[in-house]
Prior knowledge:
- The protein has helices spanning 7-20, 31-46, 64-75, 119-123, 127-131, 146-152, 154-160, 171-177, 214-227, 236-248, 253-266, and strands at residues 79-81, 88-90, 93-94, 111-115, 137-138, 141-142, 166-170, 201-202, 207-208.
- The protein is mainly alpha-helical.
- The protein has a domain at 64-118 and 164-266.
Amino acid sequence: MRPIFxxxxxxxxxxxxxxxxxxxxxxxxxxxxxxxxxxxEAAHSxxxxxxxxxxxxxxxxxxxxxxxxxxxxxxxxRDAHTVYSGCTLRRGIPDWGHCCxxxxxxxxxxxxxxxxxxxxxxxGALPEWRNGHPRCEKHGHSFxxxxxxxxxxxxxxxxxxxxxxxxxxxxxxxGARSNLPMGTVPVANGHHPELATCGLQFGDxxxxxxAEVRGEVARAYLYMNAVYFDLVELSPTARATYEAWNASDxxxxxxxxxxxxxxxxxxxxxxxxx
Length: 274
């Protein structure tokens, strides 16, 4: 003879009987799993929202060429300095008497436009950079890398032209830095001794700038992470370093003026510059 109730319907009846008697159906409803799920939800709700939620990107972005033109016009009207080496710029031109290098020591262009967060750091993971694209072909040969990503990816064009990440620097210093991230260097590796007077410490995995300019570097990293968070990631150690640099080297009047100009030109400000 078949039972009147199935296994699960019998359990449901038993639960109802227990509730009617004022007892809680402890082991029958598997509360441990529900509690764990609820705890996970509570923990998730307590996690502080990432900073990118309140940092909009450019509303009318420029490409790299346009961005350099706008920035060059800004620096041509005032005295400033290069971002890492602190070389004095008079109306956008190096004052070699107040630079870490002499003109005859340099081998590259006097001034280049440096991405503080390297282009490889925000574009290197994209498929156009890694694998190429049908649009990336010249004289019957396909190519990839930065040139392909710039041609085929509108997002790379926007990021490459984001002026909050672009600064003037001596060409030789820019070339020596290459794509290494900015961070603390416990022990210098002795590379680029010709730049010893420029205040940069070169390590095997990072480059450390002078204390006087660390704030500008930090604010560029924090901004790029906040706006392009899916491509520009920061480890907890890196974030702590940049936040400390930001606090120890606050913005000066020129940096605030530059931030206002960029806000007008591309439609967004760097909120770490106040």
